[in-house]
């Protein structure tokens, strides 16, 4: 497991007070029921080829604020964001909410939580 800095974890913990996280099981159910939502992988470009959750679109955290409105112009579109461990996605969910997106969730445990739950990755 990565050792995160104290200040980074402080930011993440503050963001988590303002967002809603969902479990891998809830996300899997949404995918299986073919619910209408956008699933966004916010990991870095170099992380994407290692595998991703089926149906995900890749928009790295570094550019999501700049590009999200081109990709998802409707602020009421349900969005689920994830990263490797759920930290960067929590920060991203907080930012998207501050940008006006009204139905944003972060995947608790990120891609690691998804894989730990036994769900498959796509490559």
Describe the protein's architecture and organization:
By secondary structure, the chain is α/β, with parallel strands linked by helices. It has one domain: Oxidized Rhodanese, domain 1 (3-Layer(aba) Sandwich), CATH 3.40.250. The chain contains five helices and five strands, in the order αβαββαβαβα. A five-stranded parallel β-sheet has the order 1-5-4-2-3. Helix 1 (6-16) packs across helix 4. The chain is globular. The relative contact order is 0.24. The model has no long low-confidence stretch (mean pLDDT 97).
Low-confidence runs: none
Task: Compute the CA-based radius of gyration.
Answer: 13 Å
Global geometry: globular
Structural class: alpha/beta
How is this fold's topology laid out?
Elements lengths: L5 H11 L3 E3 L1 H9 L5 E4 L15 E2 L5 H8 L7 E4 L4 H12 L5 E4 L2 H7 L7
Parallel strand pairs: 1-5, 2-3, 2-4, 4-5
